[in-house]
Amino acid sequence: SGEAYLLIAWVKYEFRGMQPTQLEFYLGVDPTGQTGNGNAATIDWGIDQVADKAKVHETFTHVWRTFTAAGPTASIWLRANHPTSNPSFKFYVDLVEVRQLDDAPPGPMIELTPWQLNHTISCGEQLTDDVFMIRNGGGAGTITYSLQPNCSWVSVVPDSGTSSGEQDPITVSYNTADLDPGLNTCTVTVTAPEASNSGTSLVINVTVETPAADFDEDCDVDQEDFGHFQSCLTGGGVTQTLEACLSADLDNDDDVDEADFAIFQSCFSGPGLPPGTCP
Fold first, then answer.
1. Which has the closest alpha carbon to 90: 7, 19, 28, 9?
2. pLDDT of 16-40, one tens digit each?
């Protein structure tokens, strides 16, 4: 109900004598869906579909009309009419097609802006709060939503609410100081029983980068990292070629020497302690 449709047909008509100027053809639509009475008053016949066609004795043409559904069904009726008694003509109809022009107004839908948050931080770094927006981005009505993160390092305030189309701000708070190195992903699932996309999610990606001197990538620079560095020392001007030791060339001059050690020493933090300012 309420949806618009396009009714299309290909027609061909042939005449004998001088009768083509009086032919009429209609595409009828009955919104009740009845199929038993071609003279029913409920049929909307529209306009004469061939009134503007060339008045020749054989014509093949495309005819169409639009209509709006008033209920769950509609019936299609075709009528050729000629006022002359026993007219001499043939009328063919082929490829009758009904196409939906537009959908009914969309129902309520969860809309998140943005739908993804991406951050890159250093070991031990604490992210500041983010804000995203939620609203009913669909049709009329109200959504009653709730939000649930699937991780312990994200919280949202408020975690529930309603929207009839206005944007509601949601604050995202983080506890990222203890996140593991690499990519950490958390999803905040948004549910609203009225929404067609209930269960949609805000995706949060936080990548934790380790300093170059944290060779074992455990977010500290300690004795274990020094052991690796020590095993890779070559001295000034001696190229380090071992694949496993290329990471120890902290100043990128092809050797592992005192200059690299100075960088390593500036990063040294001890076990379980994130390094401070460090290349």
1. 19
2. 655 556 778 788 888 888 888 988 8
